[in-house]
Write a structure and sequence with these properties.
The structure holds two protein chains of two kinds.
Chain A lengths: L1 H4 L5 H10 L8 H24 L5 H5 L2 H34 L5 H13 L2 H12 L6 H6 L8 H26 L2 H9 L4 H29 L3 H6 L10 H11 L1 H31 L1
Helix pairs in contact in A: 5-9, 5-11, 5-13, 6-9, 7-9, 9-11, 10-11, 11-14, 13-14
Chain B lengths: L3 H19 L8 E8 L3 H14 L3 E8 L1 H9 L6 E4 L2 H9 L8 E13 L19 E4 L4 H12 L8 E3 L2 H9 L5 E5 H7 L3 E4 L8 E8 L6 H12 L1 H9 L7
Parallel strand pairs in B: 1-2, 1-3, 5-6, 5-7
Antiparallel strand pairs in B: 3-9, 4-7, 4-8, 4-9
Helix pairs in contact in B: 3-4
Classes of the chains: A mainly alpha, B alpha/beta.
Chain lengths: 283, 254
């Protein structure tokens, strides 16, 4: 990538330059047309959802205890899951990006498997591991710990599905940062831990934040693994997506309003994050 | 020049994809009968499917099993289906109110709830009242599903105040949690307990008669071949159909 631009610019600046320059000519229709179609495919269902939402009932829904419980639980578990992603995923991404050892590509493949796994299958996998008769859950049960049907189970399910997103995007960010700086720091006498903290981390920071946002969003929308592994009980395991699904069966209008609430809350959080973190990080 | 050629193929591939998405529902030659059925019917309707296809070799029967509420909602949204069979009257009303039913819904079976425990009864549950015990974890359907409404009725009738550990989205999910021994007990239909066989044990629920649900079946307006749809309904109501339902643990319609 560096060779093609010939300058040390961040990927963001490079794309901005080429999009603005009139020298490269007009955008070709064969790119614009599919781009518009793709945008439509994404935006149209969301706009339809907004159009069919009975907005007048929204204030009343927002103060319903069941809705508040589900919303709070969703935000709480997703945020804890994001924290776990950071603590576990950042070192994992670093290992994949910076160390070379036999079996690394196999390990990277392993990390991506949950990405293609249907979430319900992920839930079954979690049951076989942490369920009351699971490989690890069985011994835990002996000492009186049962994970299914608890908020802990929700967090585990969320982390399981969000971690690959986080690791993949952070590994990409770590690879994109110039390793020469690491080498220079090492020649100046810094050990690897210091290099990680003082050089690698700051350089990859925007990518890490992006990974966290991605993981958080994935975890906020998690449904299949949660309902299979953690069950569905208001206040302890019923997150917003589960509540929306339940409402859809009895009261589709309520489900629409709940979906929009979830949508608005997540947009709000992402916008705040963007303001506070992303911009300052990129600058 | 040559690098341009692949680019030109992209829109063509896109068009193919779009065309592929549009078609597919219309069969060529043989016809398809699509049945939307409550998940508790999966064993019996599976057996009826074999009988039907034996008699009408040109027809391919496809059955979609889900919670009655989901299916009724799909029917109202215009799902391409011929017959709808729900596990209670409330969810059937969604379809009749939605104006997608072609005939009057007919009751074809009844069902009631039992308590199932994992094989070997590891938690040592003896009666329904044991659910009150704090150490016992049990699961039921969510109240959006017919089995959840029944469960609530029977729990109230027996003055059980302990809450379930989870409200599962349909009755099969409840059974799975019990069969896997993730829950000590669960409230499922008698027919599910029969189908579960040795993977679970059954405990009768007192006052079960207060929670009997009626299964209803109806042909849908969007059916492309109403006579085939009616034949399915007739088969379910026939002596043969009723015998299969009875063997699976269903009660006779009122």
């Amino acid at each position: 990538m560096r060779a093609s631009t010939g300058r040390r610019t961040s990927p963001h600046q490079a794309t901005a330059d080429s999009a603005a320059g009139p020298a490269v000519g007009r955008a070709p229709l064969r790119l614009l047309l599919p781009a518009l179609l793709g945008l439509g495919l994404l935006a149209f269902p969301l706009l339809s959802l907004l159009a069919r939402t009975p907005w007048t009932t929204m204030p009343a829904r927002l103060v319903e205890p069941k809705v508040l419980d589900a919303l709070w639980l969703s935000l709480l578990t997703s945020t804890i899951a994001m924290g776990l992603c950071l603590v576990l995923g950042l070192p994992l991404a670093w290992v994949l990006a910076r160390l070379s050892f036999p079996g690394r590509s196999f390990l990277r493949g392993l990390v991506t498997v949950p990405l293609v796994l249907p979430p319900v299958v992920a839930g079954v996998a979690l049951l076989t591991a942490f369920g009351r008769n699971g490989v690890l859950g069985g011994p835990l049960r002996e000492v009186g710990i049962s994970i299914p049907f608890t908020t802990t189970a929700v967090v585990i399910a969320h982390t399981f599905v969000a971690l690959p997103f986080f690791v993949i995007s952070v590994e990409g960010a770590l690879r994109a940062t110039n390793q020469d700086y690491d080498v220079v720091a090492a020649t100046l006498g810094a050990d690897r831990w210091t290099i990680f903290r003082r050089v690698t981390l700051p350089l990859a920071f925007p990518g890490i934040v992006a990974g966290m946002v991605l993981g958080w969003a994935r975890s906020l929308g998690e449904f299949g693994a949660t309902i299979t592994f953690a069950g569905n009980f208001p206040g302890t395991t019923q997150t917003m997506p589960l509540y929306v699904y339940e409402a859809l069966q009895s009261d589709p209008d309520a489900a629409l309003v709940l979906s929009v609430i979830l949508l608005l809350v997540s947009i709000l959080v992402l916008a705040l994050l963007r303001e506070r973190w992303l911009y300052s990080a990129v600058r | 020049m040559s690098p341009r050629r692949p680019a030109r193929r992209v829109p063509a591939a896109l068009l193919l994809l779009v065309a592929g998405c549009g078609g597919g529902t219309t069969g060529e030659g043989s016809s398809t009968l699509t049945v939307l059925a409550a998940s508790s019917l999966s064993e019996t309707f599976g057996a009826l499917e074999d009988i039907y296809e034996e008699e009408r070799t040109a027809v391919d029967v496809r059955i979609s099993y889900d919670s009655s509420a989901t299916l009724a909602g799909q029917a109202v949204e215009g799902a391409p289906a011929d017959v709808l069979a729900t596990a209670d009257e409330v969810t059937m009303r969604t379809a009749t109110d939605g104006g997608v039913t072609a005939t009057e819904p007919e009751p074809f079976a009844t069902n009631t709830l039992v308590l199932v425990v994992p094989a070997g009864n590891p938690a040592g549950i003896e009666t329904f009242a044991d659910l009150e015990n704090d150490d016992i974890s049990y699961v039921t359907c969510a109240e959006s599903a017919p089995c959840g409404v029944l469960a609530k009725t029977l729990l109230d009738a027996n003055q059980i105040e302990a809450a379930p550990k989870s409200f599962e989205v349909d009755v099969k999910a409840v059974l799975t949690k019990v069969e896997l021994d993730e829950a000590d007990a669960g409230l499922v239909y008698e027919t599910d307990a029969v189908a579960s066989g040795e993977r679970s044990e059954t405990i009768e629920i007192p006052k079960a008669a207060e929670g009997i649900t009626s299964y209803l079946i109806v042909t849908l307006k969007q059916s492309e071949d109403p006579s085939l749809a009616q034949e399915w309904v007739d088969l379910v109501l026939s002596e043969k159909g009723q015998r299969i339902l009875g063997e699976a643990g269903f009660g006779s319609p009122p």
